[in-house]
Structure formats: C-alpha cells, structure tokens
Design a protein that fits this description.
- Pathway: Protein modification; protein ubiquitination.
- Belongs to the NPH3 family.
- InterPro entries: BTB/POZ_dom (IPR000210), NPH3/RPT2-like (IPR043454), NPH3_dom (IPR027356), SKP1/BTB/POZ_sf (IPR011333).
- Keywords: Coiled coil, Ubl conjugation pathway.
- This protein is mainly α and 608 residues long.
- Among the domains are: 154 residues, 2-Layer Sandwich (Potassium Channel Kv1.1, Chain A), CATH 3.30.710; 248 residues.
- The protein is built from 27 helices and eleven strands.
- It has a five-stranded mixed β-sheet with strand order 2-3-5-4-6, covered by helices on one side. It has a two-stranded antiparallel sheet with strand order 1-7.
- A hairpin with a 2-residue loop joins strand 8 and strand 9.
- Helix 14 runs antiparallel to helix 15.
- The longest helix is centred in the C-terminal third of the chain and has 39 residues.
Length: 608
C-alpha cells in the first residue's frame, strides 16, 4: 500500500478522554469542537494554513482576550480527519495513505487550505498523492471504499468518478499486454521469491484470467458497484465478462439464491479478515432488481441456470412484477439451454394448487415460441424417419425444448391438482414437427392418465391426440398395445401403424436385395457367377430369417391386442359382432421371398 510522509516534528498532541491538547507549553487560545471531541489549539498555526478557520477566528475573536470557540461539526471526516489536519498545520509527522486520503482531501477543501493561504498546502499535497493512488489497483479500491464516509464531498470533488474510471480502465485492459499491479484477493499477481540452495529467484508473474477483478470490486456498495459496471461496459468490456462479475456479486449478497448454503457460505468470499453481514430480504430484493437491470441482454451471455435461480429467488423475495416478467422473458429467449431441474420452480405461498408453478413455465414457453416463430423464415425441414429414430441429425433448439417440455410434463403429471386444460395447453404449445419421436409425450400422457383415473372418455381421446402414433418407437408401441388406460381407438391406430411400418421395412429389405443382386451381376461375369449365386443365396437366407422374426413380432402384438380387447367391458358395445368376426379373420402378414432358383434363372436370362 502506497503512503507519503508529511511533516518533521515529533508528536505534539496528547489525548485526554474526549479532548486533544497541544504539548507545546503555550496556553491554548482557540477551541475547535467537533461532535463530542474538543481540540485545544493555537490560532496562528491554523490561520496560516486554513482560510476558513482564519475567517471564523476573526469573526469570533473578542477584545477581552477570551478563548475563541468554534463549532465544526459538519467537517468531512469528522474529528478523525481534523486530527490529521491539525498535525499538518503544526508540522507534525503524519502519513497519507489510501485509507485517509479521501477524507483529508475533502477536509482540506472544506477548510480552504489552498496555495493562496500557504505554500505546499494540504489541497496540493493530497491531490498529488491521489494521482499516485489512482495508478494502483488495490489502493484505488481502498480509496473508493472510503468515499462512502464523505460521499457528497467526494462527488463534488469528482474523486468517486476518478476512482471508478481508473478501475474501469484497468479492468478493461488486457493484462497480457500491460503489467498492471493488479491482484486477486488483494495479493499482487506475482509469486514470492523462491529459495533454492540459498539462491533467491526472481518473482514470476502469474497469468490472470478474465475474472481476476470480480472479488476485489465485490466489496463495493451497490451504488458504487453499479457505476463501475456501467463504466466497464462503456469501456468496451465483453458482455460475458460483465455478466460473470454480476453473477459473482449476486451469489455473494443474495444468500436466498442458495437456501441450502450455511450461514458461513451465504456470507463467504470475505478477505483479509473482513466480515459481511447477511443482507435483509428488502436489501436482497433491491439488489436483485438492480442486477436484473444491469445484466446484458444478449442471448447466451448469462447462463440459463443462473437466470432461473434468479427468477426463483425473485418469487421468494416478492420482487416487482416487471422484474419477474423481464426474467421470464430472458429465460424464454434461451430456454433450449435449460435443464429440467432448473425449470421445476416451486409454487410460492399457501393458496396454490399445484406443487410447481406451471403457469410460470407456460409463460416462459410462450416467450420462446413467439421468438422461434418470428425467427423461422422458412418451413421446418422434412427429416427421414430412420434419421429421427437413430438420432443422426443434430437437435435444433425447438427439438431440445420439445424434449424439455415432455420431461417437464412427465414430472408434474402425478400432481392430482394438475388440471386437464393446463396439461393440454402446455403439451399443444409444441408443434408436431418439433418432436422427432412421440415417446416422451406418450410417457407423460400415460403418467397423467394413471394419476387422473376420473377423466372422461372424451378427455382421454383429446389427450391422446397430443401424440403422433406414427412416431412411437417399437418399445413404446409394445407398451401402448398393453396399456389399459388408453382408449381402444388409439390402441387400434397404434397397431395399424406398427404393422404398416413392419411391412414397409420388409419391402425395403427385398428392394435393396434385388438392386444389390442386379448391380453385382452386371459388374461381375465369367468365372464369378458361381460366387455371386452363393452370395445371393446366403443373402436371401438371411432375409428369410429376418422376415420370420418380423412375422413373429407381428403375431405377438396381435395376441397382446386380443388380450387387451377381452379385458375391455365396452368392447361388445364399441365393436359389435362384426368387429369380432373381422378380428378372427385377420391373418398374420406373410411375405414370402422368391425362391433362389427363380432368381438364378432370372439372372441367366438377363445375361443372355
């Protein structure tokens, strides 16, 4: 820490209770009263340095030679600052440090200690040292912290703005280009001298990351911290770095963001033995709303998880509606980056119905969909079903949100107070093309039907329309065929599409096999006909085995369907005798591949 020594005389004051006396031996002829403290001094040293004291002493002096008493209760820095001023006037030794320079500079201005009153006066001395303080990161922070004690006077003298501009300039500067005496946790960015075999090595500069200044400035009060953030933003700092500083500050002073943290964790990040008391809920609410205004608006700059934690805390602290709406909008802007655990926001208060705040998630989802629809200039691309099943295409933001919504619905579906219209509205917000597979929404529907057995047949039909039966995987189709909670029409539809898919798959196998045989026969000739025939025969044998497996799966699904139908009491009313006859007449699909000999004769005819 920088310092400057002034004066040459030894200590000439002694304190007795609430009074300071000069030990020069001469009787005191002026008394300065500041609050409860009294200074018994002499007129000449004060008049020779302070224009204000010279004026007050002249106005209050009496011809009878009585002691002059002056009241200076409004002097910046109080009695502590005036003690140093008195030492300066008497030429007693004192030190200017970053901890007292601001109060001394303000007191000297208040007392009019200019060069006109005396050469090398206190205003000049403090200004010179202030410029030295501004050149050091740590000293500037200490000086800025002391501005709180004399804030109006420091603002008038532009000391606060000069401190903030100095810090902002250093924070925005690339530490790799300039060797600023910056630090982490108040320690300079160099290692101590290493001693090896009695030899002291030179200090090595440690590389500093972009967040090196976060903790140092986090000890500033909210108004000063806010001005610093605005200054670094104006200085061209990246939004990611600004957001990181605000996140650090919020986690430090809003302990409700992590209710599992202990009191020590909530008031952590102390340095040099300093302690920070836990802010009240009112202070935390004000801080949260201010941080919300300072956060950069760009998408992806602030983590979605932090925004959701901030939103949850805003509800707990009962922040303003505009603050919560702004948070919901920002979360909706990057909802595709959210995780399920983060969007499960508990309902606050005692008059709520559902365990989680489903309305809040609906509003966030609406924000996302409005932005997605506005940014989508073209229609959604068409993807092959095989690619969707295998997951070979990258997931778009809308697809990621659809998976999040399906998982959210499955998580909140067991809540018996989760009304059917809200479930339907939330699930229908995602368009069908955004779901490559319907397994997620089917799982949510199944859980909801299990937790709400009182739903009418019409409501069951409506909720099942939310999923596309053609996009169910084989495992989901097998489960749905045995699901007694689904309407019979849905089960029939699922089985129909699954059988259609099986037939299409089998036809595709034969089509590929025939094309492969044709290409091989056109390229190969002569002595390789025998090898081709053998390979073709082996391929057809494999195809027959695959066809047999598919027929077995199809028959198995049909048997399961018959079991489900028998358990339905309303089957006779719904289907009647005609449907029963149609079911008994259904035969397993048999797709017989052509014999090997026919393929051989066909190939020989082509060659001829």
């Amino acid at each position: 820490m920088a310092f400057v020594k002034l004066g040459s005389k030894s200590e000439a004051f002694r304190r007795e209770g609430q009074a300071w006396h000069c030990t020069s031996g001469l009787p005191s002829d002026v008394t300065i009263e500041i609050g409860e403290m009294s200074f018994y001094l002499h007129k000449f040293p004060l008049i020779s340095r302070s224009g204000l004291l010279a004026k007050l002493i002249k106005e209050s002096s009496n011809d009878d030679g009585s002691v002059c008493v002056l009241q200076l209760s409004d002097i910046p820095g109080g009695a502590k600052a005036f003690e140093l001023v008195a030492k300066f006037c008497y030429g007693v030794k004192l030190e200017l440090t970053p901890l007292n320079i601001v109060s001394l500079r303000c007191a000297s201005e208040y007392l009019q200690m200019t060069e006109e009153t005396g050469d090398g006066n206190l205003i000049t001395q403090t200004e010179v040292f202030l410029n030295d303080v501004f050149g050091n990161w740590t000293d500037t922070i200490k000086a800025l912290e002391t501005c709180e004690e004399v804030l109006p006077h420091a603002e008038e003298l532009h000391i606060v703005s000069r401190c903030i501009n100095s810090l902002a300039m250093k924070a925005c500067t690339d530490t790799k280009l300039f060797n600023w005496p910056v630090s982490e946790n108040g320690q300079e960015g160099t290692t101590g001298a290493d001693i090896w075999n009695g030899i002291s090595a030179e200090k090595r500069t440690q590389p500093l990351t972009d967040d090196w200044w976060y903790e140092d400035v986090s000890f500033l009060s909210l108004p000063l911290y806010k001005r610093l953030i605005q200054a670094v933003e104006a200085g061209g700092m990246s939004p990611e770095n600004i957001a990181g500083a605000l996140v650090f500050y919020a986690k430090k002073y809003i302990p409700l963001m992590n209710r599992q943290a202990s009191f020590k964790d909530a008031t952590s990040h102390t340095k040099s033995g300093s302690t920070i008391s836990t802010p009240s809920e009112a202070d935390q609410r004000v801080l949260l709303e201010e941080i919300m205004e300072l956060l950069p608006n760009q998408k992806g700059v602030t983590e979605t998880r932090f925004l959701l934690r901030l939103l949850r805390t805003a509800m707990m602290l009962q922040a303003s509606p505009s603050c919560r709406e702004n948070l919901e909008r920002r979360v909706g802007l990057q909802l595709d980056q959210a995780a399920l655990d983060d969007v499960l926001i508990p309902n606050m208060g005692y008059s709520v119905e559902t365990l989680y705040d489903i309305d809040c998630f609906q509003r966030i989802l609406d924000h996302f969909m409005s932005i997605e629809q506005a940014s989508s200039a073209s229609s959604p691309c068409i993807m092959e079903e095989s690619q969707l099943m295998e997951g070979s295409l990258p997931l778009t933001s809308l697809t990621r949100v659809s998976n999040l919504v399906d998982s959210y619905l499955a998580e909140v579906a067991p809540d018996v107070n989760f009304k059917f219209p809200k479930f339907q509205s939330l699930a229908a917000t995602i368009p069908d093309f955004a779901r490559p597979l319907s397994d997620g929404i089917y799982r949510a529907i199944d859980i909801y039907l299990k937790a709400h057995p009182w739903l009418t047949d019409s409501e069951r039909e409506q909720i099942c329309r939310l999923m596309n039966c053609q996009k169910l995987s084989l495992e989901a189709c097998t489960h749905a065929a045995q699901n007694e909670r689904l309407p019979l029409r849905v089960i029939v539809q699922i089985l129909f599409f699954e059988q259609l898919r099986l037939r299409t798959s089998i036809s595709g196998w034969f089509f590929v096999s025939d094309n492969l045989d044709n290409s091989q026969s056109s390229i190969r000739g002569g002595n390789r006909d025998t090898n081709t025939a053998n390979g073709r025969g082996s391929s057809i044998n494999d195809m027959r085995e695959r066809v047999a497996e598919l027929e077995k799966e199809c028959n198995s699904m049909k048997q399961e369907f018959k079991k489900v139908v028998k358990t339905k009491k309303r089957w006779n009313v719904f289907c009647g005798k005609k449907s029963q006859c149609d079911l008994n007449t259904v035969k397993p699909c048999k797709i017989q591949p052509p014999p090997v000999n026919e393929h051989k004769n066909h190939k020989k005819g082509d060659s001829n």
